[in-house]
Write a structure and sequence with these properties.
By secondary structure, the chain is an alpha+beta fold. Helices cover 43% and strands 20% of the residues. It has a single domain, classed as Uridine Diphospho-n-acetylenolpyruvylglucosamine Reductase, domain 3 (2-Layer Sandwich). The chain contains 13 helices and nine strands. A four-stranded antiparallel beta sheet has the order 6-7-8-9, sandwiched between helices. A three-stranded antiparallel beta sheet has the order 2-1-5.
Amino acid sequence: MSRHRAVEVSPEASEAEPLLGRAAREIGHLAIRNRGTIGGSLAHADPAAEWPLVAVALDAFLTLRSTRRTRSLSARDFFVGPLTTAAAPDEILTEVAFPAAPAGSWFGFCELSRRPGDFAVVAVACRVARDEAGSCRSATLAVGGAHGTPLHVGAVERILAGCRGEETRCAKRQTPPPARSTPAATCTARPLTAGAWSRCSRGGRCSSHSERRSTRRERTRRDPRDPARRQRSNDRARGGGAATARGLSAR
């Protein structure tokens, strides 16, 4: 089975289905991604994990093998409960097949977590394919963390059929809450679902909570050796007088 990091940096995987690499970047920390595998995550069946969510969203097919037989089943039938799958006690997961992204398609991935690297409180993955006229040809959406298993929202294709991404039109087509989800998870999943679809309709991707925090840290991090920063620190220590004088002379 491929490791998380291998999928994250694989140009072949990103070209075939960009959602795979996007989801892989959200898994734990680098040490975890270097050692964990897709098959291990799927077999573990944590409802808040990224790979079960993506597998359900894209309707991946899983191959199970034992000494008696080899069989394949849809990821939407594989997860039956928290940390519970349809695999028999003597079966192991040997292969996972994700469908390639159709031409003219976009994806969205939103994840809410308390800290970077944590399991998601709620996550949403979606894939939208549009025709030559720009209308929605097919769509799939799944929610993770809202129930004991990743939930495929089957009504989304009917709701979004023919939609071209107009905010006023799509706002009226409220996606129903995931079946069997808890009220608290539903309240959290709704804005994430809307955000994921909004990014899909514009041909973009969603930044996760952890990614936004990392971006802010990178934006605000400054080199302590920067002369301008040292000068500003000295100005503040002197009460700002030098900064004011410097500003007047610059004008």
